[in-house]
Amino acid sequence: MTYCLAINVDNGLVFCSDSRTNAGVDQVSTYSKMFRFGVDGERQFVLLSAGNLGTTQAVVSKLKKDIKEQSEVSLLTVSSMSDAAEYLGEINRAQQEKHADNNGANFEASFIIGGQIQGDKPRIMMVYPAGNYITTSKDTRYLQIGESKYGKPILDRILTAKTDLHTSALCSLVSMDSTMRSNLTVGPPIELALYEKDTFQLQHNRYDEDDEYLRELKKAWDSRLVEAFVQLPAIEWRPESPDESSEA
Hints:
Elements: E1 3-9, E2 12-17, E3 20-22, E4 28-30, E5 34-39, E6 43-51, H1 53-68, H2 81-97, E7 109-117, E8 123-127, E9 133-135, E10 142-146, H3 152-158, H4 165-182, E11 190-196, E12 202-207, H5 212-230, H6 242-245
Antiparallel strand pairs: 1-2, 1-10, 2-11, 3-4, 5-6, 6-7, 7-8, 8-9, 11-12
């Protein structure tokens, strides 16, 4: 399974992904699901992937090939983030169609692409297997692919348009920790990327399973959750009304 997350706030973007690929209880491997493209000072992209591993690797290889061969259309030539999402969707659909008749197997893959091109604002888009895409809104500041449900509550409670980048990054790691706690098919190494608006430069961290910061974060979050829980107002049991206590 996979969990990838991208956050869009007023002053930039945050990306977070795990690296676990599970093909059964006895076949667990790690592959990076975060890929970075760009030119410092001009444009920056981060790509997150989920779904069939063969498809995602083929899509990423095609993106890299188009850049290397200086193709007419590539991530270095598209003029907007919308164009980048459409280009990615076309490649994704084409790679899936190559294997469409192969015994009915599922070769679908989903992506999140985000970043900024000069003259355009920072944006993130989720690209579906069919090639279409959606973006964030003023009410929804993040996009998720993969195992999304466990990491969602913290995002809904914390994130707003005004949330600063470093708080957003911390929120993404807590979201990832909550997912790993509830689903063993999601796991380290964890990758985290931060993009500050109009800088056209990326910051990137990788956290292995034995990373000290990741352990301290998990320990602190668990402790604060317990402290908050024990301070909740006690339940006051109310007396039943005559109608409620009477037998039917």
